[in-house]
Design a protein that fits this description.
- The structure holds 2 protein chains of 2 kinds.
- Chain A contains 8 helices and 13 strands.
- Chain A has helices at about 15-25, 35-45, 65-75, 90-95, 110-125, 160-170, 175-185, 195-205; strands at about 5-10, 30-35, 50-55, 80-85, 100-105, 130-135, 140, 145-150, 150-155, 175, 215-220, 225, 230-234.
- In chain A, a hairpin with a 2-residue loop joins strand 8 (about 145-150) and strand 9 (about 150-155).
- In chain A, helix 2 packs parallel to helix 3, helix 4 (about 90-95) packs across helix 7 (about 175-185) and helix 6 (about 160-170) crosses helix 8.
- The longest helix of chain A has 17 residues, at about 110-125.
- Chain A is globular, with a radius of gyration of 18 Å.
- The termini of chain A are far apart.
- In chain B, helix 2 (about 35-70) packs parallel to helix 4 and helix 5 crosses helix 7 (about 200-215).
- Chain B is built from 8 helices and 7 strands, in the order H-H-H-H-E-H-H-E-E-H-E-E-H-E-E.
- By secondary structure, chain B is of the alpha+beta class.
- Chain B is elongated, with a radius of gyration of 25 Å.
- The longest helix of chain B is centred in the first third of the chain and has 40 residues, at about 75-115.
- Chain B has helices spanning about 5-25, 35-70, 75-115, 120-145, 160-170, 175-180, 200-215, 270-280; strands at about 155, 180-185, 195, 220-230, 230-240, 285-290, 295-300.
- The chains are: A alpha/beta, B alpha+beta.
- The interface between A and B is large, with 36 and 43 residues.
């Protein structure tokens, strides 16, 4: 029998952690719970989880400080942040601080489950969470937010860069336009998904990629987009 | 305002009755058993009532402010604008707090429903209602966010944007798409590009176009673009059911829905959102409508970007 994957849930609200832990347990994971960042660090040392799901707003040590401290000792442990601050640009800030994914409260527990699975798949495939990542001659520095193609720096709008970063951090996964729009633009309103198409067109133009025979960004028919090149730490 | 004491009357009555019963030596106990799903449903209903009460309170507060402002109509226009913008900021802060306070309880309800599994129809009901409430909370927050998020301005060709918006609607709803007629003024010169956030602007146009398609099942949907003394004017007109006159003053209010629109799905946030987006670009939104005849929405965007 294989050992169950261990998750650590960090949130100060027991009304959330109790049912959520039971839901995740039922979905096949071994779950432990911590009430704030301090306890979270102790639990990480004690239970060696495979993935951490952490709230942002907590007493004593909040989620951001927790992720920063965690990264000092555990650079590879995947973290999903439950962001309280809803603004979409705050979410990319959460990613900058070293979280692997984020979810806005109130969330659908099924959605959390699929994010957990995706992040774990990524972790086992060895997709880097490092600050500089590379796909072929395409190099992205996540800290300085700059992109190069064979040593030539590319000029991208901030939105296109955020989109490229997201796609490179989640390679080989098909992302619907709606998900991209909600996650990166913060638009959950009924709206056209052309905003995504436009940025993809910009990316393809600047990267010299073609929709017909793509090297980087493939159109997943009837679904959305997928980053197809192999991504490695640079 | 003066009737607040009425709220205390039931409490006083209860206290008197309780006191009398206690003095008479009443010792019987009352125990109530409530099924957990029902408890969550009631909690959800209470949260809805709380939101409703808060929104009603705001509406009456706004009415008082309007009264006050009418009363001193002779006063300085600047001071009035300041009061309004301060009021608006308070309102946004209120929405942000409301959102914040509802997040954790809603997450807890949804987690509990998920833990209970999908087999139970009661839990499915609780979950679907919690989801509705979550969506409402999220949309209100997004609206507040729109007023502060940084604009990513670019040079935007409005004709292109309208063509895109039309074909996006045609993708979703081919019948509505085939009813669109575009009238783009190009003589003596085309409408110059505006400096705008293209994503937000197309969000606004999508909403207006979507409304035209939703509220008119036949007849053309006219999309017009022209320039008027330094302002780009986009108009979207339909020959649909229109809006009752009594509802017209409230069309831009959050959650406002026309009395004749109950059969069409919608959050009542679309036009509020459109107005917020256009205002961020220094423009204005107008709406003319006759019930039974149709509606025309005008978006006026200054060609020169105001300094933010």
């Amino acid at each position: 029998m294989t050992e169950r994957t261990r998750l650590l849930l960090v949130d100060d609200d027991a009304a959330i952690t109790v049912p959520l832990a039971s839901f995740l347990e039922r979905s096949g994971y071994a779950v432990s719970v911590a009430g704030d960042g301090h306890e979270g660090l102790e639990e990480v040392a004690r239970t060696r989880p495979d993935l951490v799901v952490s709230d942002v707003l907590m007493p004593r040590m909040d989620g951001r400080e927790f992720v920063r401290r965690l990264r000092e000792s555990e650079p590879w442990l995947p973290v999903i942040l439950l962001t309280q601050v809803g603004e979409s640009w705050e979410r990319s800030a959460a990613l900058d601080e070293g979280a692997d994914d984020y979810l806005n409260k109130p969330f659908d527990p099924q959605e959390l489950l699929s994010r957990v699975r995706a992040v774990l798949r990524r972790a086992t495939r060895g997709v880097p969470t490092s600050q500089r990542i590379r796909a072929g001659e395409l190099l992205l520095d996540r800290t300085s937010r700059r992109v190069w193609m064979s040593d030539r720096e590319l000029d991208l709008t901030p939105k296109a860069l955020t989109l490229l970063e997201f796609l490179m951090m989640h390679p080989q996964e098909a992302h619907s336009r709606e998900r991209l729009l909600a996650g990166l633009w913060g638009f959950d309103f009924a709206s056209s998904s052309r905003a995504v198409d436009h940025r993809i067109a910009e990316l393809r133009r600047v990267l010299g990629d073609s929709a017909g025979s793509p090297r980087f960004i493939d159109t997943a028919q009837g679904l959305g987009y997928r980053f197809i090149a192999q991504v490695v730490a640079a | 305002m003066r009737r607040w004491w009425l709220a205390a009357a039931p409490l006083a009555l209860g206290a008197v009755l309780g006191g009398v019963l206690a003095l008479l030596g009443e010792r019987r106990m009352l125990e109530v058993a409530v099924a957990i799903p029902l408890a969550f449903l009631v909690a959800g209903a209470l949260a809805s009532v709380a939101i409703l009460a808060a929104l009603l309170a705001r509406r009456s507060r706004e009415a008082r402010i309007r009264e006050r402002e009418n009363a001193r109509a002779a006063g300085s226009a600047e001071a009035t604008a300041e009061t309004l913008s301060a009021e608006r900021q308070r309102h946004r802060r209120f929405l942000a707090r409301l959102d914040h306070e509802l997040k954790n309880p809603l997450t807890a309800i949804r987690a509990t429903a998920a833990a209970a599994g999908t087999g139970d129809p009661h839990w499915s009901l609780v979950d679907s209602q919690a989801r509705r409430l979550s969506e409402l909370v999220r949309d209100l927050r997004k609206l507040a966010e729109l007023e502060t998020r940084p604009l990513e301005r670019e040079s935007v060709d409005l004709e292109e944007l309208l063509v895109d918006a039309s074909s996006a609607l045609a993708d979703r709803d081919p019948a509505a798409g085939s009813r669109i007629r575009r009238e783009i003024s190009r003589v003596p010169w085309p409408v110059p590009a505006v400096s705008a956030d293209p994503d937000l602007l197309s969000l606004a146009v999508d909403n207006v176009l979507g409304n035209a398609a939703k509220y008119s099942s036949t007849g053309p949907i006219e999309v017009r673009l022209r320039e008027e003394s330094g302002v780009a004017v986009i108009e979207v007109a339909d020959s649909g059911r229109g809006i009752p006159e009594a509802d017209l003053p409230h069309v831009f209010d959050e959650l406002a829905r026309a009395g004749n629109a109950r059969d069409v799905a919608g959050s009542g946030l679309g036009l509020t959102l459109v107005q917020a987006v256009i205002a961020r670009h220094g423009g204005t939104v107008s709406l003319r409508s006759v019930e039974g005849a149709g509606t025309v929405v005008g978006l006026r965007i200054p060609l020169r970007a105001p300094s933010e």
